[in-house]
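Re: your question about DNA-binding protein HU-beta

S., sorry for the slow reply, the queue was backed up all week. Below is exactly what I fed in.
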Amino acid sequence: MNKSDLIDAIADSAGISKACAGDALNGALSAIKDALKNNESVTLVGFGTFRVGKRAARAGRNPRTGEVIEIKEVKVPKFTAGKALKDAVN
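Result:
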């Protein structure tokens, strides 16, 4: 399923136009993105939790030259599925 398929499903489920469903989806994704930028977590009960994790600095290797390089610490988005979502999948 891609974004346009998701918009179609939202529109059908809620009985609204595809334009309104697209705006709603874009608004929800934007709110999640803004919360993660502010280092906050977003919990959707029954679905899961979006949070910011850290990937520690480490030594890497340039595959072309074999030279050792230092990879900086970075923040990465993480998702943990909720119980209801896990049960729905299984």
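The two ends are 19 Å apart (CA to CA). The chain has a mean pLDDT of 96.

Happy to talk it through on Thursday.
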